[in-house]
Design brief:
This protein is α/β, with parallel strands linked by helices and 345 residues long. The chain has 13 helices and 16 strands. Strands 8, 9, 10, 11 and 12 form a 5-stranded parallel beta sheet that branches. Strands 5-4-1-6 form a 4-stranded mixed beta sheet, with no helix packed on it. A 4-stranded parallel beta sheet has the order 13-14-15-16. The chain binds zinc ion (ZN). The site of zinc ion has 6 residues, from loops.
């Protein structure tokens, strides 16, 4: 089998020992890395070699996104979450076709590649179109088909099972999960059913949680508990759960999330743009939660460049706590690794 060799100025491996090779060599065979090391240590000769220079490192993983929203980028700017969703986003997305979603995903995929993001965890309708788009672009996809109150039905679940059977391939490029939008939209009984459904297939349950202070007020006063407590007591946090945002969470909520091994997708730029709040990630990290970084949809961020989240996540935590020692570059680097692991959840 013909292998391909690349020589780069710096190779940052992100392996267990954090090895860095400068300059470095990487050998690839059948799409897989078979060797990496310092220039001069490579064994085989006569391999087809490309001197690419620059920095080589694993691709970034966008842990929470609705990428086809590239098509509605900029709409509803200046509105808080609820008005932004109901007045600006959902009416526009309601007019989108499968073909629109394909092109929106294709555009977003190109933008993510430009920023070094090779994988994204998507919550969206038109899941087939998103798979088709990444099959063309070459990106990796964790596809969690969106479920809303308006679209939740037995036939949606049958379609989902069919979609899962056809595309779920975590060893390859597509991992399938399910994406119930939120407890405030679906209600608790539907979330319980969907969580059981996700567990029955052992797939990722990807949900928006505690993004704004107001969104769960009705449920919280009905149950007399926080939204995280409600989900926890109803068994919704059991299984493989990825919760996006978790801005409005108490110490007790964080402990519950940690006890259930919930992963959190932190989306600081989106939270800032919509004026939602600041997620207490330093407390989550202290409690051992896995925290990944997400752009959220490009309409609540305006870009899919995850490097902005890398920077803003650290700055926001520091200014919020008046503590410049928080979220060091090496901590951010660990996050990136956690992002890589989250992709395999
Ligand atoms: Zn979102």
């Amino acid at each position: 089998m013909q292998s391909q060799r690349y020589i780069a100025d710096i190779i940052v491996t992100c392996d267990a020992d954090d090895n860095v090779y400068a300059p470095g060599v990487i050998d690839i065979e059948e799409g897989k890395i078979i060797w990496v090391g310092n220039l001069g240590d490579e064994k085989e000769t006569g391999v087809q070699t490309d001197e690419i220079g620059g920095l080589l490192m694993p691709g970034l993983v966008n842990a929470h996104c609705h990428t086809p929203m590239t098509l509605v980028r900029g709409a509803g700017d200046g509105l808080p979450l609820e008005r932004w969703l109901t007045e600006a986003m959902w009416p526009r997305e309601g007019k989108m076709s499968e073909e629109d979603a394909y092109w929106g995903m294709t555009l977003g995929s190109a933008e993510m590649f430009r920023a070094g993001v090779t994988s994204s965890c998507e919550m969206y309708l038109f899941e087939e179109a998103l798979v088709e788009a990444v099959n063309s672009s070459g990106a990796r996809l964790v596809m969690t088909p969106g479920v809303f109150k308006s679209s939740y039905s037995e036939s949606r679940l049958r379609n989902f099972t069919d979609f899962y059977n056809r595309y779920h391939d975590p060893e390859g490029k597509i991992t399938v999960g399910i994406g119930p939008h939120s407890a405030y939209d679906l209600g608790i009984p539907a979330c319980v059913e969907l969580a059981e459904f996700a567990r029955s297939l052992d797939v990722l349950f990807h949900i928006h949680l505690a993004e704004t202070r107001e969104e769960s007020a009705e449920l919280e006063s009905q149950y007399g508990k926080s939204i995280v407590e409600i989900l926890s007591e109803n068994g919704i946090l059991e299984g493989r759960v990825l919760a996006a945002h978790c801005v409005w969470v108490s110490e007790n909520d964080i402990s519950l999330l940690s006890d259930s091994n919930v992963s959190v997708a932190h989306c600081p730029v989106s939270n800032m743009k919509l004026g939602s709040g600041i997620a207490p990630i330093e407390k989550m990290l202290e409690k051992g939660l896995t925290v990944g970084l997400g752009t959220d949809g490009p309409a609540s961020n305006d870009t899919l460049d995850l490097w902005e989240e890398v920077k803003v996540a650290a700055l926001l935590a520091r200014v919020n706590n008046l503590d410049a020692t928080l979220i060091t570059p090496s901590k951010l680097w660990e996050w990136r690794l956690e992002n890589l692991q989250m992709q395999l959840v």
